[in-house]
C-alpha cells in the first residue's frame, strides 16, 4: 500500500514492471538478458571502450577501496583492513560480471558500508560480544532479508525515488569521497616529522595535481586541443593517465629530491589483516548476540535497498541509452548472496556504488564527433577485467608500492567531484553566486521566480547536511533518514512549493522546458541587448586605438 501513502501516479521506469509470483521478477530478468549472451562475451567485446572502461573501473574502484580499507583498519585497530576489502571487491565483482543481469552496475564496499561496519564493531564492544560471529550472523540475516526483497519484487517501489532524492544522495556520496580524499591527504602529510612545511606543500600539490589533471583530461573534449581522436583518447583514459603521471613524478621526487609516501604492501596477499583463520566460528556467540544481529541487519538492509537500487536507477535511465534493457531484481539477489557468504569469511558487505556506477556507464558510452552519445558498449568482459586486475594487484606488491598515497587521495577527490558537480543541485547552487538569468535560459525551471529556485536549492542543501549529521552521530540509524527523503518529497514539498514548480525544478536534462513568461523573456532580451551594445562599444574602442597606433 506504499503507493497510496505516497502518491497515486508515478511513472514506472523500465525494468520495474510488476510480474507477480515468488521470484517472478527475478526470473524475468534472466529470461530477458539471456538473449544477449553471445554479444555480452563476443560481438560487443571487440570495441575500444572495453579496454578504456576496464581501466577506468580498475583505477576508480581500486583507489577508493584501498582508501576505505586503510580507514577501517585504523578505526578497528587492525581487525579488518585492505586485504578483506580488495578480495571481496574483486571476487564479488567478477561473479556479478558473470551472474548479474546488469554487469555495468559497479559494486564494492562503499564509504557508508565502512561506516556501518565501524558502528557494528562499536556495538559488539558495547554489548561485549565477539565481533566476527556478530558480523557473520548479521550477514546471514542481511542476505536473507535482501533475497526476500528480490523474490517479492519490492525493488519496484524504488520508482518513488525522484531526482529530488537522487540529487541529495549523489551529492552526499560525492562529498563523502571528497572528504575521504582530503582526510587521506592530511594523514599523509602528518606522517612525517622532518621538513613539515615542505612535506605538506608537496603532498598538497601532488594530491590536487592528480585531481586537476584527471578532471581536465575528462573535460578536454569541450576544448579545441588536438583532433577528435586524440581528445577522445585522453578523455577515456583521464584517471589512468593522471595516476601514472603521479607515479612517475613520485618516483623522481623520491629518488632525487624529497621522500614520498608510497602504498604499504606489507599485508597484501591471501592473508587476513589480524592473522585469524578465514572461516568464522558461528557457534561462538550467544542467542542474545544472534538476536542483536537480526535487529542490526534491518537498518543495514534499508540502506542497501536505497543505495543498490538508486545506483541501478541512475545507471539505467533511458537517457543513458542502454540497449539491452534495465534490470533490478537480479542484481539485488546477487548482492543478497554476496552479503550472506562474505561476512562468514570475514569479508565486508558490497552494494551498488555511487558515483562509480553511472560514471562507468559514461566511460562505456560511445559518442559522435560532436560528442553526442550514440550508444553504450554493453558487455561483461570490461567489468570482469577491471575486477580481475584488482585481485591480481594483491599479488603484485612490487607494483603497488610504486603508487604514491597522494594518487589514492587525488583519485578519491576526483571521483567525488565528478559525482557532486554532475548533479542538478550543483547547477542550481551556482545560481546563488552567478548571473541569475543566463544560466537558467533553456532550463525547465527558467520561468520560475529566483526566490523559488533558491528556496528549493537551500532545502536540498539542508537535506545533504542532515545526511552528514546522521552519518556522524546516528550510525546504524543513518539509513532511516535517507529513506525519509521519499515521503518528504511527496508529502512535505507540496506544502511549500506548488506541484508545477516541483516538476519544473526536478525536470530531467533534455526534457522540454515550460514556456517562459513574456516578462522573463523581455528581461533576458534586454540583458542580451545591453551586453551586445557593450561588446560593440568595446570593439569600436579597440578599433580606434589600433588606428591611432598605426598613425603614430
Automatic annotation (TrEMBL):
Name the UniProt record assigns to this protein: Slc4a1 protein
Start and end residues of each stretch annotated as Disordered: 509-552
An annotated GO BP: monoatomic anion transport
Keywords for the protein's UniProt record, in alphabetical order: Membrane, Transmembrane, Transmembrane helix
Gene: Slc4a1
Compositionally biased spans, kind Basic and acidic residues: 535-552
Any one GO CC term of the record: plasma membrane
Superkingdom to which the source organism belongs: Eukaryota
Amino acid at each position: 500500500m506504499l503507493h497510496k501513502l505516497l502518491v497515486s501516479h508515478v511513472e514506472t521506469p523500465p525494468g520495474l514492471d510488476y510480474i507477480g509470483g515468488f521470484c517472478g521478477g527475478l526470473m524475468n530478468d534472466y529470461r530477458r538478458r539471456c538473449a544477449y549472451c553471445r554479444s555480452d562475451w563476443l560481438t560487443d567485446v571487440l570495441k575500444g571502450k572495453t579496454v578504456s572502461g576496464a581501466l577506468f573501473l580498475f583505477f576508480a574502484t581500486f583507489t577508493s577501496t584501498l582508501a576505505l580499507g586503510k580507514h577501517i583498519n585504523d578505526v578497528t585497530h587492525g581487525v579488518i583492513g585492505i586485504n578483506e576489502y580488495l578480495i571481496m571487491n574483486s571476487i564479488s565483482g567478477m561473479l556479478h560480471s558473470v551472474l548479474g543481469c546488469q554487469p555495468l552496475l559497479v559494486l564494492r564496499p562503499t564509504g557508508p558500508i565502512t561506516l556501518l561496519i565501524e558502528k557494528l564493531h562499536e556495538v559488539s564492544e558495547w554489548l561485549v560480544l565477539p565481533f566476527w560471529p556478530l558480523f557473520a550472523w548479521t550477514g546471514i540475516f542481511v542476505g536473507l532479508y535482501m533475497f526476500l526483497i528480490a523474490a517479492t519484487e519490492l525493488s519496484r517501489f524504488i520508482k518513488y525515488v525522484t531526482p529530488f532524492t537522487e540529487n541529495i544522495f549523489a551529492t552526499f556520496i560525492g562529498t563523502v569521497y571528497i572528504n575521504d580524499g582530503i582526510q587521506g591527504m592530511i594523514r599523509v602529510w602528518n606522517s612525517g616529522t622532518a621538513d613539515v612545511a615542505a612535506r605538506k606543500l608537496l603532498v598538497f600539490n601532488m594530491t590536487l595535481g592528480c585531481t586537476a589533471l584527471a578532471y581536465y583530461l575528462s573535460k578536454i573534449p569541450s576544448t579545441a586541443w588536438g583532433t577528435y581522436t586524440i581528445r577522445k583518447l585522453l578523455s577515456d583514459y583521464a584517471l589512468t593517465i593522471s595516476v601514472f603521471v603521479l607515479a612517475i613524478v613520485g618516483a623522481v621526487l623520491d629518488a632525487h629530491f624529497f621522500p614520498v609516501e608510497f602504498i604499504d604492501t606489507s599485508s597484501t596477499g591471501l592473508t587476513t589483516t589480524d592473522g585469524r583463520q578465514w572461516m568464522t566460528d558461528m557457534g561462538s556467540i550467544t542467542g542474545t548476540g544472534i538476536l542483536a544481529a537480526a535487529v542490526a541487519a534491518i537498518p543495514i538492509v534499508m540502506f542497501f535497498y536505497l543505495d543498490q537500487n538508486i545506483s541501478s536507477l541512475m545507471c539505467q535511465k533511458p537517457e543513458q541509452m542502454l540497449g539491452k534493457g534495465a534490470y533490478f531484481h537480479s542484481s539485488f539477489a546477487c548482492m543478497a548472496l554476496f552479503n550472506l557468504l562474505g561476512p562468514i569469511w570475514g569479508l565486508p558487505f558490497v552494494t551498488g556504488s555511487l558515483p562509480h556506477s553511472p560514471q562507468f556507464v559514461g566511460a562505456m558510452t560511445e559518442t559522435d564527433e560532436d560528442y553526442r552519445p550514440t550508444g553504450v558498449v554493453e558487455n561483461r568482459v570490461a567489468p570482469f577485467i577491471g575486477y580481475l586486475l584488482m585481485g591480481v594487484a594483491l599479488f603484485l606488491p612490487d607494483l603497488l608500492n610504486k603508487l604514491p598515497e597522494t594518487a589514492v587521495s587525488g583519485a578519491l577527490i576526483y571521483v567525488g567531484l565528478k559525482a557532486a558537480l554532475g548533479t542538478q543541485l550543483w547547477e542550481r547552487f551556482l545560481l546563488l553566486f552567478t548571473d541569475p538569468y543566463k544560466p537558467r535560459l533553456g532550463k525547465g525551471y527558467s520561468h520560475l521566480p529566483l526566490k523559488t529556485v533558491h528556496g528549493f536549492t537551500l532545502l536540498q542543501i539542508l537535506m545533504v547536511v542532515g545526511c552528514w549529521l546522521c552519518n556522524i552521530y546516528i550510525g546504524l540509524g543513518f539509513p532511516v533518514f535517507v529513506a525519509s527523503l521519499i515521503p518528504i518529497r511527496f508529502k512535505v514539498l507540496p506544502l511549500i512549493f506548488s506541484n508545477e514548480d516541483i516538476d519544473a525544478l526536478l525536470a530531467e536534462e533534455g526534457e522540454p522546458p515550460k514556456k517562459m513568461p513574456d516578462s522573463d523573456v523581455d528581461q533576458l532580451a534586454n540583458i542580451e541587448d545591453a551586453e551586445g551594445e557593450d561588446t560593440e562599444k568595446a570593439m569600436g574602442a579597440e578599433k580606434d586605438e589600433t588606428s591611432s597606433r598605426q598613425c603614430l
